[in-house]
Design brief:
Elements lengths: L2 H14 L9 H11 L5 E9 L5 E4 L7 E4 L3 E11 L2 E10 L5 E5 L10 H9 L2 E6 L15 H27 L5 E7 L1 H12 L6 E5 L5 H14 L14 H15 L36 H10 L3 E2 L5 E3 L10 H7 L5 H11 L12 H10 L12 H5 L3 E7 L8 H14 L8 E6 L31 H11 L5 E5 L6 E6 L2 E5 L4 E5 L8
Parallel strand pairs: 6-7, 6-8, 8-9, 9-12, 12-13
Antiparallel strand pairs: 1-4, 2-3, 4-5, 5-7, 10-11, 13-15, 14-15, 16-17
Helix pairs in contact: 4-5, 6-10, 6-11
């Protein structure tokens, strides 16, 4: 059967199996969850059916936001799971009136305890029974972990498992039948959570989408602290190596001048940052010049920023900062001389337990200390996905090459770690990584970054070839893995095919195509 016909057949088959309660029975069935459903260590706090004919704002839970957009008629359930006697996870389930038998769990971001309302609406609008949680705490302040190890455990690994286990039971109680397939969607910390789920609970999900995963967490937090240290943060007034924002604009322009055309097209996007051997010496001040150029201390800082981070014994701790990311919003957060809150909070509260800590005089020894402590087993840096593979799970991950927060080279590193650990030169059978030139952290940027993540879909196309969520469904349910992923830019006018690692995006004179390259870039 031709591919498009096969996909159409699968979509029609799923639609024919759609579950829905009679319209007049929905409010009472939803309300009954609060009074009649009794689950282990769980309390249903509210259950209300919402008839929604057009998108509207509804009240959100917690302190992260006051309201949330809802565009689908549904049963909205708020519940709390007591994970231990000293910890609890608050969560919401959005159960759409028309359900295709699919369950979708959502992740979080940063150190956050914020329910992902954007993707609750996104999942429900695509007929997934969708569950999101506060990750075991409310807000984005790391101080909540101090003296509360079980709250930390919810954050590092347990909350996603809890929302999956209890969420599936709520789904079955409401619809009268169990889910058929289970999925996960998250980016950044959410990407780390998805990876952790595959490592610790390989049977929780049939398909996982983990964008820009914050894996090797302790090293990531340490790498961010080292970037701040290089430019003299937080004491920038006395640091000769500090680089002000206006100078970063000049540096960014020089990076593009040197590396933008390496892929054959000058378009403001560096396709392969790892091929960019940026030479900051081109910007060194000459003679008495002090404006629009870099001093020797600033030059030394740039050299450190654009090289990998190594430990005291020469071991690789973290990949380098990607050239081409200098002008993104988060880049200015990391490199503006102030202390990044979640990095500082992690070391302040979880490593040093010192409320006055401000990242001053940070060294790689501090990273090694974090390794030894590894609070809540947060690291999430193991290549042993054998259990997830054996369960038949499929893992789809993506990473923007202009990510200012998490170096995209780390996703290559994780792929190679899994490949080595499992003895599989290619992971195509269950794990695929798509690298997206011009995408910043999780979304945004000048590239063709819209690939159906974060509830942001292209108006030009919304098919499995352009949408990671639909692609994972086709892979799990239809056995059709995504060979490429086509993205569109913010205007929905420009499209580009993105390649799965280790293939490379290559300009053939007319368009970007995917090629497997061998040693020294020779096409195979």
């Amino acid at each position: 059967m031709p591919l498009m016909r096969r996909l159409t057949f699968l979509l029609l088959l799923v639609a024919s199996l759609a579950h829905s309660l009679p319209q007049d029975a929905r409010p009472s069935a939803c309300k009954a969850l609060k009074t009649r459903l009794h689950l282990e260590n769980t309390t249903i706090l509210s259950a209300e059916h919402l008839d929604i004919s057009q998108p509207k704002n509804i009240t959100a839970l917690g302190t992260c936001q006051t309201d949330a957009l809802a565009s689908t008629s549904m049963c909205r359930v708020h519940f709390v799971i007591n994970t231990t006697t000293t910890s609890a996870v608050h969560a919401e389930a959005w159960l759409p009136d028309t359900w295709y038998g699919r369950f979708l769990a959502l992740g979080n971001g940063g150190l956050g305890g914020c329910i992902d309302y954007l993707n609750l609406d996104y999942g429900a609008s695509l007929h997934f029974a969708t569950v999101g949680s506060n990750n075991g705490h409310d807000g984005t302040d790391g101080s909540v972990f101090v003296g509360h190890p079980e709250v930390l455990n919810d954050y590092t690994f347990r909350a996603i498992h809890a929302e999956a286990v209890i969420g599936k039971q709520i789904v079955e109680a409401y619809y009268g039948s169990p889910h058929q397939r289970s999925y996960y969607l998250g980016c950044s910390t959410g990407g780390r959570q998805g990876t952790q789920a595959a490592l610790k609970y390989p049977d929780d999900f049939d398909g996982i989408i983990a964008g820009a995963p914050a894996t090797d967490w302790n090293h990531l937090m340490g790498w961010m602290a080292m970037l701040m240290e290089y430019i003299g943060a937080p004491h920038i007034s006395s640091s000769s190596s500090f680089i002000p924002p206006a100078l970063w604009d000049i540096i960014a322009a020089e990076v593009l001048r040197q590396c933008d055309g390496l892929d054959g097209v000058v378009d403001g996007i560096i396709t392969e940052p790892d091929a960019c051997g940026f030479q900051p010496e081109a910007l060194v001040c000459i003679g008495d010049a002090t404006e629009g150029c870099v001093s020797i201390p600033q030059l030394e800082a740039l050299r450190k920023i654009y090289q990998p981070l190594f430990g005291p014994d020469g071991e690789l701790l973290y990949p380098r900062y990607d050239p081409g990311t200098e002008q993104g919003g988060f880049a200015q957060t990391l490199l503006n001389g102030s202390v990044v809150s979640y990095t500082n909070d992690w070391y302040r509260y979880m490593i040093f337990n010192d409320s006055s800590y401000d990242s001053s005089n940070f060294t790689t020894q501090d990273i090694l200390l974090a390794d030894r402590i590894n609070p809540g087993d947060v690291s999430t840096f193991s290549g042993d996905l054998s259990g997830f593979k054996a369960s038949g799970g499929k893992f789809l991950t993506y990473h923007g090459r202009r990510d200012e927060v998490i170096a995209s080279g780390n996703s290559k590193r994780v792929y190679d770690l899994i490949s080595t650990t499992l003895g599989m030169p290619s992971l195509d059978s269950f794990y695929r990584l798509f690298l997206v030139p011009g995408m910043t952290h999780c979304m945004g940027g000048p590239g063709a970054w819209r690939i159906g993540q974060y509830g942001l879909v292209s108006k030009a196309a919304n098919t499995s070839s352009h949408n990671v969520l639909l692609a994972i469904v086709d892979w799990v349910e239809g056995g059709v893995p995504p060979d490429t992923m086509t993205g569109t830019d913010s205007s929905d006018r420009t499209q580009r095919v993105h390649c799965r690692y280790p293939e490379r995006s290559v300009w053939d004179g007319e368009a970007y195509v995917c090629k497997r390259l061998g040693w020294r870039g020779v096409r195979l």
